[in-house]
Amino acid sequence: MRERRGEGVRRPGSGAARWPGSEAANFTNRAANVVRISYGSSMPEDVFVSGQAATRRELTPSGDRGVSSLVALDRRDDGVALVTIDNPKMNALSSQVLSELKIVAQRLVDDPPSAVVIWGGERIFAAGADVRELGGTDAAFEISSNFFAALGAIESIPRVTIAAVNGYALGGGCELALACDLRVCADDARFGLPEVLLGVIPGGGGTQRLPRLIGKSRAKELIFSGRHVEADEALSIGLVNRVVPKSDVVAAALSWAGEFARGPLSAHALAKSAIDHGMDVGLSEGLLIERSRFAASCRTEDAAIGVASFLEHGPGKATFNRS
After folding, report:
1. Which residue from 180, 186, 261, 263 could staple onto 79, CB 3.0 to 4.6 Å apart?
2. DSSP characters for 109-168?
3. Residue 136's pLDDT band (boundaries 50, 70, 90)?
4. Secondary structure (3-state) at 17
5. How far is CA 138 from CA 76, 102, 143, 145, 147, in A?
6. pLDDT tens-digit map of 213-253
7. What is the pLDDT of residues 123-134, one digit of tens each?
8. Active site amino acids
9. Do 236 and 191 contact (CB within 8 A), yes or no?
10. Strand pairing category for 161-165 and 182-186
11. Tell me, what's the pLDDT at 45?
12. Is 311 exposed, middle or buried, given 0-12, 13-18 or 19+ CB atoms closer than 10 A?
């Protein structure tokens, strides 16, 4: 993972700069610096040039220029953070990728943008864990722990997170998508938890997050069979929220994220907290969690803006501050 500053970011394997960015609002709506984390292996030059900007590439987290970056973070000028995985050829979620995902997620927790999109590029979202790292019990525990840490950090981001899925999202890739709040996929995308075909079970949260999303019986059938789920079925069972043409996936996800980015960010964070924590407890305790988050939301600047706008202009007209 490398950092840079500038006005554009390249797609993996592309020479063209796209998606300009300058700043993002943080959790308390303070102005935030623009941070770029470059695409490493897809940008061999040492200086990034886009438009009028030239940016010096920084060191990887290990401090070693010889270690390529596999996860990229682009904070755009609309407040949306785009996280891209670039681990050719299949975007395997190796220990390095998971480590970098955790670092990126922790940065987005510490300095939240207005919304987040996670993408694997135009060809594939992620094909799962790196099978080469599978071994005995100790290795399996380490892999599961890496997934637990990385995906838990993603779930902790106090903003709407959207998985933009092109191609396959299998095994750990499906589990990564499940860790996001919402999912947009291509019309030819494929989802699945095929670990049973290797004689093991999902170890990155699939047995827990999938039934919470689509129900216990459907989740069991998919996990027991290890079969792939096509986009139309994924939509019908609630595994994804939207299906779009494959060429439109990241644009659709960024557009949707942009809508959330213009909304009441404090309310998003508190609603997400109430839902996620409430799902882990009984109804009575969940209602207490909701009550506390509701009370907290009424004390925010977003609430003051929303209520004042409602009284003066009617519902749905509020414009929330981002600076």
Report:
1. 261
2. HHS--SEEEEE--SS-SB--B-GGG--SHHHHHHHHHHHHHHHHHHHT-SS-EEEEE-SE
3. low
4. strand
5. 40, 21, 9, 10, 14
6. 999 999 999 999 999 999 999 999 999 999 999 999 999 99
7. 999 988 777 777
8. 129, 172, 175, 195
9. no
10. parallel
11. 27
12. exposed
Q: Is residue 26's pLDDT more than 90?
A: no
Domains and CATH numbers, the chain: 2-261 (3.90.226.10), 265-313 (1.10.12)
Query: Residues 11, 121: contact at Cβ < 8 Å?
Result: yes
| Cα 30 off chain centre by | 22
Placement of tokens 């996860």 in the chain: 71
Sign of CA dihedral 249, 253, 256, 262: negative
Q: What average pLDDT does the chain have? A: 81
- pLDDT, one tens digit per residue, over 27-74 is 223 222 223 222 223 322 222 222 222 222 223 344 333 345 899 999
Q: What share of the chain is helix, strand, coil (3-state, %, to 5)?
A: 40, 20, 40
The full 3-state SS of 167-183, as one line of letters, equals: CEEECHHHHHHHCCCEE
- Separation CA 94–CA 49 (nearest Å): 30
Give the residues across from 205 on adjacent strands: none
End-to-end CA distance of the chain: give it in Å, rounded.
28
Residue 22 tokens read as: 């300058």
- Cα–Cα distance measured from residue 63 to residue 54, given in angstroms and rounded to the nearest whole number: 22
Name the phi and psi angles at 175, rounded to 5.
Answer: -65, -35
Cβ pair 93, 70 in contact under 8 A: no
Coil, strand or helix: which one is 33?
coil
Query: Stretch 1-22: mean pLDDT, rounded?
Result: 37
